[in-house]
Amino acid sequence: MSATALQASPPQAAPTSPVIQELALSAMQAQRIASMVEGVLSECPGQVEPRYLNRIEALSKDFLADIPALLWSRKRPFVVTGLPVFDNIEKSKILALLLGETIGKCAAYSEYNQSYITDIRPTKFSKELSSGTELLDMHNDLTFATDKCRPRALVLVAHIASGDVPKTLLAPADLILAELTPEDAQVLAEPVYEIRSGSKLRWPSEQVRRISIIERENEHVLIRLSFTNISARAGLPHDSAAKAMSALSRLAETALELGRHYGHVIRRGEALFIPNDYCLHGRDAYESDNYERLLLRSYVVTPDVVKANHGNTMISLRT
Ligand SMILES: O=C(O)CCC(=O)C(=O)O
Ligand SMILES: [Fe+2]
Predict the structure, then answer these.
(1) Whose CA is nearest to atom 1 of ligand 1?
(2) Which alpha helices (H) appear in 44-145, and where do they start and end?
(3) Which of 24, 133, 145, 284 is the most buried (most CB within 10 A)?
(4) For residue 159, which of 87, 57, 77, 207 has the smallest C-alpha distance?
């Protein structure tokens, strides 16, 4: 089958939900992805992520052009369905990297886990909150990081997802803002907060940065929220600090409510794309012991960020 014939049947952005769209791949597209993945694995005998990325970079991904178009124009999360599924986890890793490279450059963080892929599953061997089974509160990833290094998007691929798997909670920033009172929205837009983070990293890189929680960028809304490390900025009068913190907790509540409403249970054959700055995510609690779930996550930054600040995609959170 020629590339032209494949391009003749583009994926359809089905209006399953006006908020979290589904992009259903055609069987031919899935087939083409599967053979790319097989090819990359067989051409990278060392089976390491940077090698996979080198190979992936050289491949034409134009037949998946609807993916970046959808992500960067709407700045809303969406789910891609109809992906090939693999038993060999190396192939699922390559798939996650391939999907990441359709929207930008996959990045690894030197002070985090130095890996282009992170496995997300309940385990006692990780300090990360996402590896627990309790509710994972609404957040964005590496919230504290600067514009020079923060992931612009996350791609989550389900390698295993069977039984009672929890929902990935999703709350777009503009919808959260629409639910807030004008007073709260105003406080949250002011730089009256500070975020302290990075102390738990492998090579601790603690930073304290002054931030606002909500920012407007033309018609889009940017949002910042993380777990317990945002406080009212030091030196703020007591009343203003109290106001800032109560607006923040109302925002977190609203985000959780919307996150549960719009969330998606990710299954095998699916990938979830989340624009990190424009949408909060979380994960519902595991409700029973009857589950098997292993997600693979790739972080993606934009090529201009890599070029201007790093020179390569092993990125330092100190930048
Ligand atoms: O487990 C999930 O569904 C989401 C995990 C998460 O927060 C992440 O991958 O950053
Ligand atoms: Fe996360």
Answers:
(1) 283
(2) 49-57, 66-74, 89-103
(3) 145
(4) 87
| Sole residue written with tokens 């069977």 | 162
Task: Please name the residue that has the structure tokens 């590339």.
Answer: 3
**Helix/strand/coil percentages in the chain, nearest 5:** 35, 25, 40
Place of tokens 């990780």: 126
Asked whether 281 lines ligand 1 (CB < 6 A), one says yes
Alpha carbons 137 and 94: distance in angstroms, whole number = 29
Where does the chain show beta strands of DSSP type E? 12-14, 21-24, 78-81, 105-109, 118-120, 136-139, 153-163, 168-172, 193-197, 207-211, 214-217, 220-223, 230-232, 271-275, 279-283, 291-301, 314-315
Rounded Cα distance, 248 and 263, in Å? 21
pLDDT tens per residue across span 190-215? 999 999 887 777 777 778 999 999 99
Distance 165 CA to ligand 1 centre (A): 12
Q: Which two tokens stand for residue 90?
A: 């190396």
**What confidence tens digit (pLDDT) does each residue in 149-168 have?**
999 999 999 999 999 999 99
